[in-house]
Design goal:
about 230 residues; mainly alpha; single chain
Length: about 230
């Protein structure tokens, strides 16, 4: 009897709390079960002895105690049901969050892939531009070299022409000098008379006398060679 009232007293203040702590609910349920069992056996005892239930004070107090505990039990059931729904909602939210997270990860992966592709494209473009620039520089270098070679060739030709010109000028001066010397040695002959010696036939049809002109000719072999060379 005291046992049931003890439970009643213990559970009384907790009736107000909507979601009791698990430890107290663990206490509450076995206590309630024990009270129900005791009440049932008491009723059975009374039935066997043929006593009336109304006049049994113990049965009346036990019934009152159980009646008071019943709303608490209902409250606990409701609280547990709410908690269950709450957990189910939480589970749904977690699933949705996980789905959202997976979608976000996928979008992030796609974004990173796109960035990487863009980076590779930029790199390829940069490499192509660099290659084009190098080709252009190479081409410019080649053109520059070709131009330099052309200028060098032209310069070389000009130098050769200058040398030829100078050599010809020197020969001409040398020939003039020789002619002047010859004129000095042979005042009776015209400057080009020696050219005909031993060459074309004489105008009068006979060979010139073996004498001075012939000797004069053999005296200056260098000049004769030089005049042939200058022709």
């Amino acid at each position: 009897h005291h046992h049931h009232h003890h439970h009643d007293f213990q559970q009384g203040p907790q009736a107000q709390t909507t979601a009791p702590a698990p430890a107290s609910s663990d206490d509450f349920v076995p206590g309630f079960e024990a009270s129900v069992d005791a009440f049932a056996s008491r009723l059975q005892q009374a039935a066997q002895q043929g006593r009336g239930v109304r006049n049994d004070a113990t049965i009346q107090s036990m019934f009152q105690s159980l009646s008071l505990m019943h709303p608490q039990l209902m409250q606990r059931m409701e609280a547990l049901d709410d908690e269950r729904h709450g957990l189910l909602d939480l589970q749904t939210k977690i699933r949705k969050t996980e789905d959202a997270r997976a979608r976000l990860d996928e979008l992030n992966r796609q974004h990173l892939q796109k960035l990487e592709e863009q980076r590779q494209e930029q790199e390829m473009l940069r490499r192509m531009q660099l290659e084009q620039k190098l080709k252009l520089i190479e081409q410019q270098e080649m053109e520059k070299r070709a131009l330099e070679e052309q200028l060098e060739e032209r310069h070389r030709q000009q130098q050769e022409e200058q040398q030829h010109h100078e050599a010809a000028e020197q020969q001409r001066r040398h020939a003039e000098m020789m002619q002047r010397q010859e004129a000095m040695y042979n005042p009776h002959l015209p400057p080009t008379a020696h050219m005909h010696v031993g060459g074309a036939p004489h105008p009068h049809g006979f060979a010139p006398p073996q004498g001075f002109p012939q000797e004069q000719h053999s005296q200056h072999p260098q000049h004769q060679q030089h005049s042939q060379h200058s022709q």
